[in-house]
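Notes to self after the call with IL:
- keep both proteins in one doc
- input above output, always
- annotate only the second one for now

Protein 1:
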Amino acid sequence: MIKATLFSLLIFLFVINLSSCSDSVRKKNQNINIDSIIYKPGTNEPFNGTWKGETDSIKLEFDVVNGKKEGNFRVYYPNRKIQISGKMKNNRNTGEWKYFYENGNLESSGFFVNDVPDGKWLWYYSDKTLKQVGYYRSGKRDSLWKTYDSTGVLIDSTIIKNDTTVQKSPL
């Protein structure tokens, strides 16, 4: 379940990234995006500033430096609460990213290095109770992963190396 949640979040980010890589014209700001570079409307000059846009009811906002996503990246729910918050460097996810429930509580947080999960990741139930904790190394689960029930009781403890279960600890 947790792996599926992370996979869904990564797919969401991939779709956002992919949509910004295609040759397109942004209706709201009329920025032209070619080969992952965002240009000022009607010019061949890279855009600098904060890009804001909407896709269906999802609102996006990210910083752009010399035409590339560089700095803060945010996705908002229709109620304007933050859904995803992180940093970009050279069009790639970097540093700590946070994912939120629509009620504003933290759903998960973890680190990216060069666009792949790397380091400690934590997941929470919507009431802020810890759900799962583990570490990624170069995009693969690689540590002791602990899963808790909604009351905070440890329900699973599994050693995973290179995305493969090595040992399930009896509880």
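Protein 2 (the one to annotate):
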Amino acid sequence: MTKTTSTSHSATRPAGEWTPMPPLRAGPEMVALRTFLFDCTWTGTVSPNGMGPGSPEMSAVGKATFHPILDGAWITCDCEQDQFVDERKVITWKAHFVVGWYPRGEAYKLLYADNNGSSTLMVGRIDDGSFICETMGDDPVQLRLTWTSLGANEVEWRNECSIAGGPWFLIEEYLCTPK
């Protein structure tokens, strides 16, 4: 991954010669996300216990729409998904996230919120054909979102969870294809 550089602001500059930081612009890091983040639809499965202890396996269909913002330095996403038990819709899940490159940390940052009351700040990286984001901080419930390129504009998306440092378990996974 090409590193993003920023202008150095030396503390030794004479008074009155301040120069503002240049605005963050889309760079190669944001271009690299296009492989994973594109307007898409999906089908797949929510694992048993994936929506909490005792929850049944569910089938799901969903869609996502992505929009660049702030001169392409960030991307927003709106997701909506219907979940079914025995072909009966039991919930419509909606989520919004914002993702961009954080030059000082040389990593992606992702802010996530959904209509189940979940919200989190995540840190991400591109590694071996996958875009992987994990919850930041010491919250006992950690999430890992993984977009894996399958080529030909297809992505496998996985949502995994770890509770109190325990092993990761699958909540749901989907095959995403362009709208």
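Annotation: Confidence is low (pLDDT under 50) at residues 1-10. The CA atoms of residues 93 and 116 lie 7 Å apart.
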